[in-house]
Structure formats: structure tokens, C-alpha cells
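Weekly puzzle thread! Below is a chain. First person to post its structure in C-alpha cell form gets bragging rights.
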Amino acid sequence: MARTTGLIETVSSLLRSAATEIVLPHFGSLQASEIRHETGNEVVTIVDHKVESFLASQLAELLPGSVVLGEEAAKRQPSLRDLLDGTSLVWLLDPLDGTGNFVAGIPCFSIMATLVERGQTTMSWMLDPLTNVLAACEWGAGAFVGEHRIHAPSRLPDASQLRGAILKRFLPPDLRLHVESREALFGQVLPGMKCAGHEYPALATGEEDFALFWRTEPWDHAPGALFLEEAGGHVARLDGQAYRPADPGQGLLAAGSEEIWNTAHAALGLP
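Winning reply:
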């Protein structure tokens, strides 16, 4: 599939408009009434809702017959997830990835959009509103940060040379204890950025070698998984099965290459 520059640029412009008009004016100035804490210690803000509303209306007009599946809409109507496994063109939308960071004033959050066609992720965008840096890709056409094509570093390290993130917050207790018992095998274990829109580009550029996730909501992982794979990385379920955004399973391991994935998987002692 050739890189569809027109659509890439149109969606990029929409994300940048949302960043400029909605996200940035609220960063560091949210009022308590604009923040809501949900079950599971999740947090949502007025920014999440405003960005989703703005982008949903714009994206739906870009491709005839396409539908939008936003994170906030899916919370209200879980059956919308069924769209991902159908025949529709689906725009997946994470209006503010890293909301907890945003609320805390931590400069690590992203606006993410993904195009899914018949269950296959075909395009994705991850915008850092603060730096205006965009990571975007199209299936079969490579991964780009700005105008620069990204190639994940290729190397064959042993586990003691790997630097990776293990996101423990949602791990089941028994798996968490197991993973913690294996951490000493790695060169460095990081807690994770709490923002997939930053974590996946870090894997693609070699800033991190691997990342272990438990929760795998499609709006969180579909954009980054395609981006990393287009850069030469590898993303799979803990049992080695391919990742698909429509799949309901838990657990995901992402790495800068298939070789690194295999090394990290073995060192973690995963099934």
C-alpha cells in the first residue's frame, strides 16, 4: 500500500488543531470541576470529551461510510467495540492518551487516531501536543516521525543488555510477582510512561528495547503497534499470537525487533 500523503496530512492537521484549540489551553489550568475520577482509579477530563467530540465529527466526513469509535463513546456504549471486527471503516480515537499525566502536569500525553479496515490497522497518528511532533504510519509504507522514516535498531543482545518497561499497575497479582522475580535478569527495568503514544515511539527509536503491557484497549495500542511494526519492531500477545485491535484478550509484549521480543519473553518466563 502506497503512503497516502493526502489523508496522512489531513488527519495530522486535524490533530494539531485539536491540540492548539483544546488541549494546550487546558494544560496546567484544569479546574477540579473539569476532572472526574472513574472506577479503577481512571481519570477523565473535559479535554477528553471536547477533543473526542471535535475529532469524531471531522474524521467521519473524510471517508464515505466510515464510523468513529472513540474511547469515551465506548465507555458509554461498549457494544460499539463490535465495529472493529466488522466490514466498516473504523476510526479509532484516543482523544487524550496519558490523561493522568496531563492532570498531574507531566508533559507526556498524546492525541491518537487509527484507521482500521476490516479488522486490520492500516494507518495511525500519534501527536505530542506540547512539541507538535507527529508519529504516523501506513501499513506497508513505513513509520515516520515528521518527515523522517524510522527504523528500529537491529541487534541481538542478551537480557542483561535490555532496557525495558514493565507496566505493573494492571498485572494480575500472581503474574506481577512472577515478573518481579525476573527483573534482575535485565539491564534496566522502567516503570513505563503511562502514555502509549510516547512508549511506542520510544521502542521504535531504541530509547527502550521492550515494553510489557496488561490492559490492551484498542485505542491505546492499535496506533502504536502498527507504528512499531512498520519501523521493524514486533508486537504480540504473551502467547506469541498476533495482536489485532478487535481481540478482547489481555497482555501484550512489544519490542524493537522479533529477536529482542524473543529474548525479553524468555527472560520474563512468559508462557
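Puzzle host: Confirmed. Bonus trivia for everyone else. Residues 152 and 204 are 5 Å apart (CA to CA).
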